[in-house]
Amino acid sequence: MRIGVLGPLRVVADGRETGIGGARLRVLLTRLALGVGGVVSPTALSEALWPEGGPAHPHTALHSLATRLRRTLPEPHALRSEPEGYRLALPPEAVDAARFERLAVQGRGALRDGHPEDAAQRLREALSLWRGAPLADTAHLPFAVPAVARLERIRLGVREDLVAAELGSSDATERKVHLAELEELIADHPLRERLRELLVAVLAADGRRGEALTAHEEYRRLLAAQLGTVPGKSMRALHQRLLGGRGDGPSPGP
Predict the structure, then answer these.
(1) The sheet that has 79-82: what strands, in order across it?
(2) Of 36, 79, 117, 198, which sits with the fewest C-beta atoms within 10 Å of its C-beta?
(3) Where is the Bacterial transcriptional activator domain (predicted)?
(4) Which long-range contacts (CB under 8 A, 24 or more apart) does 158-161 make?
């Protein structure tokens, strides 16, 4: 059985999808999936299910919901009652969010170790797991807000790492795609230095040294105006290489 939370909640076993009816059942399964393999306390589950105050007997209501969810799952034995709470007894790989995070770590590690092709393969696989907004069924609930923010933050880093991994081997068409993506991301994160650094590096790799220098200058002025600071060490080093006629890429780190 596999559970997807990187988009609308999805449960698949043996190639067949099982619908989870009822908003509270979806909340319960999502909260358990975020802690896959570990025990989630009744208190944490109750707070997820009833953030504004629960029923008179929340543990009884929780037990009833868990029983209903167990009957709905294609592998009922995966939902287990423990003395300390409830546990989704599945390997982390069974939940797409956990698999995504593992691939993100592996991809970044490969990039730092000087294996960009291996890094790109893992990072592309990580991004392919996303089917839409994370925790789409429950993103408005308090328990989901930090999880969504964390997943989105990791995804942004993965997208940056992928551009860095493909920078040395990309052709003109791929660089055009990277530039469009970077410009879109910069519109949402104008002060994020790694995005700006990658933009400068991709422009330089595309033979557009003048535009790369202009992009650096625009960022330098933005930092000075909004934060009263200057670009970081890696960005300054890239700028110096450009001034010297070199356009090799930025460091792979965040």
Answers:
(1) 39-40, 85-88, 79-82
(2) 117
(3) 95-243
(4) 158/104, 158/107, 158/123, 158/126, 158/127, 159/127, 159/185, 160/194, 160/195, 160/198, 160/254, 161/104, 161/107, 161/108, 161/111, 161/119, 161/123, 161/252
pTM score of the predicted model? 0.91
Distance CA 248, CA 27 (A): 47
Q: Are strands 39-40 and 16-18 parallel, antiparallel or unpaired?
A: unpaired
Reading the block at residue 223, the tokens are 């930092």
Convert the pLDDT of each residue in 7-34 to its tens digit: 999 999 999 999 999 999 999 999 999 9
CB of 249 within 8 A of CB of 164?
A: yes
Task: Copy the structure tokens of residue 212.
Answer: 């790369």
Phi, psi of 40 (to 5 degrees): -110, 125
CATH 1.10.10.10 fits 2-94, yes or no: yes
